[in-house]
Each structure stands twice: as C-alpha cells, then as structure tokens.
Specification:
Helix 7 runs antiparallel to helix 18 and helix 9 crosses helix 18. It is globular, with a radius of gyration of 26 Å. The chain is built from 24 helices and 9 strands. Strand 3 and strand 4 form a beta hairpin. The chain has a 5-stranded antiparallel sheet with strand order 3-4-9-6-7, with no helix packed on it. Strands 1-2 form a two-stranded antiparallel sheet.
C-alpha cells in the first residue's frame, strides 16, 4: 500500500525516472561509442530535416521546393509529409552540433512523448499506477519504437501520439457529452497531421468506433455531435497547410512510394518476441484470457469489453486471417499507400497493454483466487519484459558493432550511392557540416516525384539526378529559387538534375523551358558553349499562401491559449 501511495503522490517524477532509465540503458552502447545508426529510412528523413535546417539558417525559405536536401533536386516532400514536424526537426538541428547528438536527443524525446501518452491513456481508463508502470516498458520496447532508434522510421512518432488520441476518443464513452472539450481532440489530431499522414488516417476509424458507442450510450446526442463538429473544425483550421499542400501536389502526376505485397507484410503469431511483424504467443494467451475476463465482467465494466473488442478486431485486420491477398489483387494502390497491415501495431499495442493493465486493476479488487491469478500474470509480464529488454539491448550492441566496423558502418540500406570509404561516413556523422553525410550516402526513394508517364522512378531519379548532381554548381537564391550553373564545351542538349512540377517555372539562359524526358519530369535543355545558367522556382498559389497564414495564426492563438490556461491552472503552485 505504501508503494502505491508513493506512486500516486510522485507519479510525474517516477514516470520521468522510469522512461529516462529505460531509454538510457537501451542507448547505452550507442552513447558510449558515439554510434549513429543508419538504415533505409535514415537518409530520407535526414534530407528532409536538413533542408529545413538550411532554410532557417540562411533565411532562404521555400515551402514547397526542396533546395538543399535530396541532391538539391527541387522535389516536393515536406509540404505534404509532416510539414510542422519537419520544421521542428530543422529547428532542433540548429541546436545540435551533429547527427549523433540529434539522434540521441530525438530518441529520448520520442520515449518521453510515448511514455507519458501511455500513462495518460491508462489514467483515463482508471488503471492503477502500479499496473501502468509494469506495462509501460513493454509499450516502449515494442512496435515501431525500436525502428526510430535503429533507423528513424517515422511510424514510431505516430505510435507515440496514438495513446494521446485514443485517450481523447475514450472520452466519448466515459464522459458526459456536456463535459467534453471543444478543442482538445481537434488539436491532437492536428498535431498528428503535422507529423504523419498515415497515422492520421488510421486513427480515424478508431475514433469513429468510440464516437458510435458514445452516441448510442448517451442521451444528449446533439451535444456530442456538436462538440465533435467543433473539434473537426479546429482540426481543419490547424491543418489547412497539410490539406492545401496535398491539393497542390496532386495537380501533378506523381510517383508513389515503393509498393509491397500486403499479404506478405502481416502480423504473425510465430515467435515469443513481439515487434512490428510478430505478436507473441504470450500476448495471444493474454488476449484470450482478456476476452473471457472482459466478457464475464461485461456488466460491471463495459469499457473493458469495448476496448478488448476493438483490439481483437485490429489484430485480426493486421494478420493473415484478413483476406489481404484479395486486396493485393483488386486494390493494388493500397500496396503503395498503406503498404503493410503490420502498421496497425501502432494502435494495437497501446490498446492491448492498457486494457491488460485495466483488467489487472479490476482483478486486484476481487477475491483471493482471482487476486492470485493477478500475481501470476504480473510475474509473467515482468519476466517477459526482462527478456524483451535484453533482446533490444543485444540488438543495440550488434548495431553498434556494425557501426564500429570500418568496412560496414552502415547497417542496412538500398543506396544509389555510398562511399567506399566507410570511415569517412562515420566521421561525417560527427561533423558540424551536416550535409557531408548526405553526400556520402544517397538513397533514391521515388516518393512524390513528378512523372509524365508510367516509369521506374527509382532508376530514373538515380540516373538523371543523383548521378549527375556533382556536374553542376547549385546556389539557392534569397527568393527561394534554385540556380544551376555549368560550363559546356559545345552546343548540345542535356538533362538538368532537377525535377519540374506543373507549378514550377524553369528559365534556362533567360528563356523558359518546356521540354522534359519521358517518364520522370526532368528538363531537357539546350546548353550553349560556355557558361549556362538555369533558374528553377516553384510558384505557390495565392489561395495556398492564405491557407498557410491562417494555419500559422491559428497555431499561435492555440499555443498562446494553452500556455495561458496552464499558467492559470498552476498559478497557486507557482506563487508558493
């Protein structure tokens, strides 16, 4: 009892210590040997954030056109893929000396966001602190979180945000509609929109599930609908830049991410480990026990049953039980957009672990036999946590050894170009010149590239842009345009290593150019003997500029209001 009371009084401090200690031990080898882990997503996101870093550093802003990252190709990425998050990371890079410091800091920030979100969700469904703390490490050890530590996969940040959103969705059930917030859910969903589009789309059906239950349960349905409507309105106002950016981009014919077979990327029940692809045998047993317990206690705690059913539905959807081969055949576009049903684990793990914690809390109030079952489950969970923790630690150790290997350094990737001098790559990750690494390791992801017919965008991007990048002098101008200079020995037609969208204007030696190669929209230009100059500029529509400023102003007002509320709430404490 004294331990539980201590947790109640010191929960913020205890939470901070648990998350910090867990993250430190998981990153121990990385910190000790100053290792930077580079996998297939690392270069992609580092290019995104480096571009914003340079914009902030130089003042040469371009919201759509990428002038610094991605081999200075002028492609669109950040405007449609987590723009707010990209600017936050660019700002963080200004404060970080090198990529190593950036990677360590973001790992800690990710775990704080995820850990406090999970504990907030547990508190929302009235889980006792002890059981929330027991399952917290399991939450931070599973799903996509290890993929940020190992390779900067952005789904991990989506998973970190999910508990916060799910907690607000549960309010539809547990709160009287008159006490629901007019803005909280809308703000959180807008945060997700500024981070990761797919996470936003995946959370939609989950929130709808809770909203339907709340609509059936509560009598004052009109109030519920009204507050949901206001939250949607706030979400739209705070996400106009994302919505507008997608509209601008999709006026073009674009290349989609690399497609994968849905049926081959499902959740398997084949290991004692749990991760993106595996749902542990232990978890299967716990899920079955959870179902029977929730069903048996339906009348006394309906929320437990409702969360359990949603969790089971998501697990079935993520597994081979669902006919994903049918969707592979009849809806192939999902292979490029949704890509992997295993992505549903970002929803499954917070729901599953929090509802297990809820059942343990309910069991603690029962008779001695059921209380004994609780003790056994707790012991098994603790042993399982230690086992998983050791596996993650060993994974970190192996990645660190790869980093220290002079012939390897890079753990896993499919680069278009990678320097044969791996030691140079390692040094670049600790260099104050953050662009150095991005020139030694270059991937050729096709996402959002402009095309004019069906083509292999990966190959074309590598051939026309990455391979030719060093043959030209690139300069970013104060108006946000990109200037290319080159010296030609004779008059000839050449391909410039940039991409052109419908809204782009390309001037070559003062004349507008409208000729492009087949497939990828790269310009074919007439190069005269001597010095040549090309200028690429993206013309942002006026209506989008208005939407962007509305978004910025709304965010300033929102942050100001939240700070005012926080200060007012804690004023008595601050004045002590």
């Amino acid at each position: 009892m004294k331990i539980i009371e201590f947790f109640k009084r010191k929960n913020i401090l205890v939470s901070f210590l648990i998350i910090t200690l867990l993250t430190f031990v998981l990153t121990y080898y990385q910190i000790r040997y100053k290792a930077v882990f580079v996998y297939n997503d690392t270069a992609f996101h580092y290019n995104r954030y480096f571009d914003i870093f340079q914009q902030l550093k130089t003042g040469n802003f371009s919201y759509f056109q990428t002038n610094y990252g991605f081999s200075q190709s002028g492609r669109i990425i950040n405007a449609v893929y987590g723009p707010g998050f990209a600017y936050l990371n660019g700002l963080l890079l200004l404060l970080c000396k090198n990529w190593f410091i950036y990677q360590i800091i973001t790992t800690f920030l990710l775990n704080y966001l995820a850990g406090y979100g999970y504990l907030y969700l547990c508190r929302k469904i009235k889980v006792k602190y002890l059981y929330a703390y027991v399952t917290l490490p399991l939450f931070l050890l599973g799903g996509y979180f290890p993929t940020w530590i190992q390779g900067n996969t952005l789904m991990s940040w989506g998973q970190a945000l999910c508990p916060w959103i799910i907690a607000e969705g549960i309010n539809f059930i547990v709160k009287n509609p008159s006490k629901l917030s007019y803005f909280k859910l809308g703000i959180w969903m807008a945060v997700v929109a500024q981070v990761h589009n797919l996470t936003l789309l995946m959370l939609g059906p989950v929130l709808l599930y809770f909203a339907i239950i709340g609509f059936v349960k509560h009598k004052n349905k009109l109030v519920l609908v009204k507050k949901i409507g206001v939250n949607i309105g706030i979400f739209i106002l705070l996400s106009l830049n994302v919505i507008g950016g997608i509209i601008v981009l999709f006026n073009n014919k674009i290349a989609l991410p690399v497609g994968v077979a849905l049926n081959e990327h499902v959740l398997h029940f084949s290991s004692w480990d749990y991760s993106i692809t595996n749902f542990s045998y232990l978890f299967v047993v716990l899920l079955l026990l959870q179902f029977f317990f929730a069903f048996y206690n339906f009348k006394s705690n309906k929320l437990n049953f409702e969360i359990t059913m949603l969790c089971m539905l998501l697990i079935l959807l993520a597994s081979r039980v669902f006919p994903w081969s049918f969707f592979d055949k009849h809806f192939p576009s999902l292979q490029n957009s949704f890509q992997a049903p295993t992505r549903l684990v970002i929803l499954i793990y917070p729901l599953f672990l929090s509802v297990i914690s809820l059942s343990l809390s309910l069991l603690s109030r029962k008779v001695r036999i059921e209380n004994g079952a609780k003790q056994i489950i707790l012991l098994v969970l603790c042993l399982f946590t230690l086992m998983q923790f050791n596996q993650r630690r060993l994974s970190q150790r192996n990645s660190t050894l790869n980093y220290l290997n002079n012939k390897m350094v890079i753990n896993y990737s499919f680069p278009r170009y990678i320097s044969a001098n791996r030691v140079t790559i390692r040094k670049s990750l600790h260099s104050a010149d953050k662009n150095k690494f991005l020139t030694l390791f270059i991937n050729s992801e096709p996402d959002y590239l402009p095309i004019n017919e069906k083509t292999n965008a990966i190959s074309s991007y590598g051939k026309y842009i990455i391979d030719k990048y060093k043959n030209f002098n690139h300069q970013v101008l104060p108006n946000g345009s990109l200037q290319l200079k080159w010296k030609a020995k004779r008059n000839e037609k050449i391909i410039l290593p940039i991409v052109v969208y419908k809204q782009s204007i390309l001037l070559v030696n003062g004349k507008r150019n409208n000729k492009y190669a087949k497939g990828l929209n790269v310009p074919i230009v007439y190069s005269k003997k001597g010095i040549n100059v090309a200028n690429l500029r993206f013309i942002t529509p006026l209506w989008f500029v208005i939407m962007l400023w509305i978004t910025v102003i709304c965010w300033i007002i929102t942050i100001g209001y939240l700070l005012y509320k926080s200060v007012r709430k804690h004023r008595p404490f601050l004045l002590k």
